[in-house]
Structures are given as C-alpha cells and as structure tokens.
Amino acid sequence: MVDDADPAYYVISDLHIGGDEQLGEIDFLDELLAFLERLEATDENAELVINGDLFGLWEVTEIDGPAKFEFLTERYPDLFRQLRATGESIPITLLPGNHDNELTAYEEYAERLAEYNVDLVRSRSITRPVGDRTIWFEHGHQQDPNNRFEDFANPYETPLGYFYNTHVTSRAGRLSDRGRYNWLKDVQAVTPTERVPRWLFSKYFYREMNPLLRYAAIPFLLAFNISVVIAVLAGLDVAGVWTMPVETADAALDRLGLVGEAVHFILVVNSVIAGVILLASIPVYFLLRDVRKTVDRFGAVETDLTVDPDEPYETAAREVFVEHPETAIFCYGHTHRPTINEVDGRLLVNTGTWLKRLHRRDVVTGLLPPVFYPSYQLCVVRIAAEPDGIAVEYEEIVKPSPYTEEVTLTERLLTLGRKPSPALPDRAVVPAEATPFPPNSGERTDE
C-alpha cells in the first residue's frame, strides 16, 4: 500500500572525501553541490541516506582523532554549508563505512555533524519503512574479511584494509604530482587490489617510460605473439614433424624492401627470445604448481585478498530476509559496483561510488600491458513505494569521462574497438507481497 506520508529515499555512498595532499581534491564537487541544492529545493517528502564512506578518514594520516573534522570543514567549506542548507529541508542520515569508521568511535563527531544537520548513526546498519515493508541499509564492509571490524566503535582496531590505505593509498596521494601527469592518486580507484601491480606497470609503460624507449619496444612486443608461433613451428621443423615454408616467407618479406628486413629482424630476435622463454617455462610451471600444492596443504593462505564481489552480500541478504521477513531491499555500497540482483524475490542493491572507476582492457594483440580506461558513474539510487510495488531507480549524475585526457593515443590505438561503455542498472521493482509481517515492522531502527 502506498501512503503519501512515506518518504522517498535518495541513497549515495563511497565518496571518500578527504585524504593526504592530492587525495584531498574532489573531482565531483560541483556535481555533488548541485545534487544537494536540488534536494534543498524539493517539495518531495524525502530523506538522503549516505550509506558509508562519505569521508576518507583512513587516508588523512597526519591528523589524529576528531581533529580530522576541523580539517574537513576548513578544506571543504562549500560542501558543509550546503549540507547544512539541505538538512534544513530534508533529513540527512550518515551511516559510517570502513574508511570513516572512526566516526563511530567519538561522540564529538556526531555532535559536530549535527551542527550541519547531518544525523550520524553510530551503528552497523539501519532500516527504513517503505510502504508496508522495510529497507535494510549497511555499508557492506562487515561482509569483507579484509575490512571487517570485530570490535565495533573501537578507534584502535585496524583491519588489513586500514594498513593498505594508510601506507599505500595515502602515500600515493603525497607522491602523485611527481609523475609526468598526476595519476598515482588513482590507486584508490583500482579494484580489486590484486590489479594494482598490473595497473602500476601499465601506467609506467604508457606514461612514465622514456618515450623513445617505449616506441622502440612496441614493435617487438606487438610481434611477440607471432614469434611464439614461429618458435613452436621451428621446434616442429627441427623435430621433423613439420617443414616450415621459410623460402616463401623470406621471398614475401624481400618484396617489402627495408620494411621487410626490419620485420624479418624483429621476428628472428623475438622467435629466439620466445623459444628460450618456452623452454624455461616448462620447469617453472611444474615448480610453481608444486609450490601451490604445498601452500594449500599447509593451509597457509585461507582467504583471497579480495572477496567475491557478489556472493558474500547475497548470503548476508538472505540471512536478513529470513530474520526480518518484512525486508524488501538490502542496500549496500563498499564494492563500488552499481548493481541490482534479485535474491529470493527481494532486491540486493549496490549504490556504486562517486570516485573515478577504472576499466581494464587488454590490447588487441602483442605482449603489452593492459590499458585502464577511467570513467565516472556518479549516481543516486532512489527507493520509493509505488502502486506496482517498491521501485529502485538509478539516476545518473552526468560527468564527462576523463579518458580523452588520461588515455594516450597509443593506448587508444592498441585497444581499438574495446573502449568500455559502462551503464547503470535499469529500474527494478519488488512486487507487493501478501505475506503478513510482524507488528511494528515498518518502524525505523538502528542496529
């Protein structure tokens, strides 16, 4: 049943505002202020829910405790003025995430945020009524073993993710402007973290490497795949299994003049290298396989560094749906992946991120580093009761992709036809359900 008194919920998460030096820049500040101004002017019965990681307090490493709040208000005065103005029109609720978990540890944060009309809920999760049912909100880091807090509201608890962000991400913010262009700060956008070494090598190759060295290496690397095939065929030729048409190939290259000679030289050098690599890879393969079996036997590595992007949250949602059958939607953030999945007739909703996102694309051919295309998918999730059920809609906050400035012509040519085109999920509806719910199932609760 739709009640005119039921609010519509606007949900955002994972803005990660704040951090050392270059991390302190907000690429989306204008878009965020415009969105808050729009909510300030609305006549709609609405509530803004910020579902975790509004601030990047982990990345503010040179200030301790609640003094970080002064740093934030002094650095972003326009943002806090607008929060105060918007909060006079509609409720603003902030649920902490892992990057701003420190908010839960000090009462002073709640008091200071209240001055800007932001209600800080120092809880793991909250629920809100929608029609005859409820929405479950949590940031999602409690389902991630690398960022889970066992002792809630303990400012001294430091999961694995804390060390990564204070020693890697924060350090990158302090060093980023030393590069040929300001790229190192984007390490916070690389997910999963296992991709960081490949991303670093990609940026070194396409941005930091001496251009003469890079352009000299590209022909050899592009031809490497062909050279592997030639090396294999040469081995078959030596073994008498198959005869290579060397004279035909040489004649074809001779007709190309100097270009043919250059191609012939590159293929010969690459084929020798490829042959050596193929020979060396056989014992290395068996060695690595044996090491992996030994590690598994001792149980030295029990979990991956990064959790599955969906499965832990589907499991958590099912548990909530069983324990709280009135729940229609499990809404979370944390993984920066805007998605909607159906779970047991309900919806599992991820609110994405306002940070830059990086999309890996392999090159069309050759032994070259992958290319990481940047994009923005700024979005607001609107959840409201409607006649056909409870609707979830993603609204895109338009911000041009920076790929034309951050992806070189070489990278674009090497990934021709592979440019990503990310899209937000379509509208989804949880249909009305006749199952009776427990008394007071529509009350707001904080857990």
Question: CATH superfamily of the largest domain, please?
Answer: Metallo-dependent phosphatases
Number of DSSP helical runs:
13
The low-confidence runs, each spanning 5 or more residues with pLDDT under 50, are: 300-307, 434-444
Q: According to CATH, what is the class of the largest domain?
A: Alpha Beta
Reading side by side through the largest sheet, how are the strands ordered? 4-3-2-1-12-13-14
Structural class: alpha/beta
Proper CATH architecture of the largest domain: 4-Layer Sandwich
Order of helices and strands: EHEHHEHEEEHHHHHHHEEEEEEEHHEE
Distance between the termini: 26 Å
Number of E strands = 15
Number of domains: 2
Mean pLDDT: 85
What summary fits the major beta sheet? 7 strands, mixed
Our estimate of the beta-strand percent is: 15-25%
By CATH, the topology of the largest domain is Purple Acid Phosphatase, chain A, domain 2
Helix share, percent: 25-40%
Domain Calcineurin-like phosphoesterase: 10-229
Transmembrane segments: 212-242, 262-288
InterPro entries: Calcineurin-like_PHP (IPR004843), LpxH-like (IPR043461), Metallo-depent_PP-like (IPR029052)
GO molecular function: metal ion binding; UDP-2,3-diacylglucosamine hydrolase activity
Which tags fit this structure?
alpha/beta, 2 domains, 7-stranded mixed β-sheet, 6-stranded mixed β-sheet, 15 strands, Phosphoesterase, transmembrane
Q: What is shown here, in short?
A:
Pfam families: Metallophos. The chain is of the alpha/beta class and 447 residues long.
